[in-house]
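Summary for the steering committee. One of the milestones for this cycle was to obtain a three-dimensional model of the protein with pyridoxal-5'-phosphate bound, which we needed before selecting residues for the alanine scan. The sequence and ligand used are listed below.
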Amino acid sequence: MPVPVHEQPRPRPTDAWAARQRLGHRVQHTPLRHSPSLSRRVGAPVHLKLECLQTTGSFKLRGATNALLALDAAARARGVVTVSTGNHGRALAWAARALGVRAVVCMSHLVPQNKRDAIDALGAEIHISGDSQDAAERTVTRLVQEQGLVRIPPFDDARVIAGQATLGLELLEDLPDLQTVLVPLSGGGLLAGVALAIKAAAPTARLVGVSMAHGCAMHASLAAGRPVQVEEVPSLADSLGGGIGLHNRHTFALVQALVDETLLVSEAEIARGIAHAYFQEQLVVEGAGAVGIAALLAGRVAAPGRTAVVVSGANIDMAQHRQIISAATTT
Ligand SMILES: *Cc1c(COP(=O)(O)O)cnc(C)c1O
């Protein structure tokens, strides 16, 4: 059995408040905007949590910054390393630059070039290896051993989950009587954090994870009752790729305990979500950020009541975005 480098206590709702204090103004309290078009479609008030407007273009800045701020001076001096589908790496690179910490980001060949370029521009070192998150993860392990870098995982980490939970605190403030929350789901750091914050204050709120139809490891793991591996395949929702780790420490148990349901959307539905965000909401949204909108448009969520949809990121390749909106005939 591999022994974890450091055991972390299980994240608690109060960790969200501590993270909020620690983060201060390093992350933005993003707008929650009513969507007339989606409200009409669904027959219930729908609000969009515009995390696509967050600094670095995704919510990942919350968890990455919280984890980095929690390190002591000795750990910061060693530098940090992570595996990423792009947005966590970009967030970590941003936070590391702000604090003067060396950052190394390991990615697979599936990570789009625009995301690699943005990380490079922030001064982080980049390693590209293999065709899966798991392959890139092996490079992380090697760099931890060889160079003594400190690992900052993208989701399965108490400090990261607490950082993402600050998004849930903002939702509670801005929509206190919310009934349904749709959250994009991959490794589950975002969903676990948001659920942790929201269920503590509003236990009857329905928490729904949304992912792409092919390659959602958390969905398959929930069905199996334990973490399982699924094949990683290219998707418009590239930020949702990758496994949850067969030795998952936090997110699987939290999602299993706190989340009411998970649902899946097809590639065509994700494209429709991206187009809807653009034509109806004047928003540029990446595939992973559009899955909640896609689920509503597809009629996948019955009687949601007062609904918040987390629009988790903006970082789409703009040539791909142009193709998608050109091909869209109707929204
Ligand atoms: C990372 C990411 C997600 C999924 O977050 P997890 O914590 O891995 O579930 C969703 N949307 C975007 C834009 C992301 O970058």
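Key point for the committee: The first strand starts at residue 32 and ends at 34.
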